[in-house]
Design goal:
Blueprint lengths: L6 E6 L5 E7 L5 E7 L10 H10 L3 E5 L17 H16 L4 E11 L1 H11 L6 E5 L12 H16 L6 E3 L17 H8 L11 E3 L1 H7 L15 E6 L7 H10 L4 E6 L13 H15 L6
Helix pairs in contact: 2-3
Amino acid sequence: MIIRHREDVEFQTLDGVTLRGWLFPAAQRGPAVIMSPGFNCVKEMLLPEVATVFQAAGITALVYDTRSIGASDGIPRNDINPSKQIGDYHDAVTFMRTHSLVDPAQIALWGYSLSATVALSATALDARVAAVVACAPPTDVGFPPEKLPKILARVQKDRESVVAGNPPCQVPLFDKKGNTLYKIAVPISDSDHDLIRQAQAYGPTANITTSMQSYYHIAMWDPLKLMPLVSPTPVMLCVAEEDGMCLLEEEKKLFESFREPKTFYSVPNKGHMDFLAGEEFPHVMEAQIDFLKQHLGKKRR
């Protein structure tokens, strides 16, 4: 897909971190969608293709790197902190509310994988959000009980090391068998494994390691406690029926926990990493645009 006009933008978070991204301005003033990439991903991965579709449909799109990732500031690098990322979504809303092309009453959030659950959490805490689209949101971001003691021991060893003046420990996203430190339904498949490794092709800002403290931050986050607060904001869940990281039945349970208005869209024969690609992509985007146009601008809570 040809990338349309985009602008380099940056904005400040409440704690003074500069986040950088791209704005895909629509042809006229109206709704907007704020997008951030998945776990440890950079904005160059998939999001521009999605943003240009929104842009062509008259929805201004902001795509940004989360803190410590890609072009955005933040140290240590590749430090995944969902609680901070929730606040960053809120600061992105504040930034977009001042843009001349954006109706401040028509701002939606969009997330994929981990950022989908973060977007849902941010929506739960911010009545300024007019709608949310969550693509393949993990419902359980904890750790297998048998792994947790060892992980926490490594976390504390790293904290002691950093306090002593050493650089933060960086760990691979997964081992040679496709296993991760955090909880997923099954080990990452060979095809997903390859797709993640291909992230390095997106340039020097891409990195397939994360800080050890990322898992400390994740251990302290319990997103399911926030999910009841998402309603009555309109919510759309887009899921892959063959997702091995986020099981379809668990996604359905999450969807059932929301009140109306809500929309569920499932993509057959697709997994976690590829369901927004291929011949199904235009149909998924058409459904998302229909959802946003139906709900943005309506009187809300």
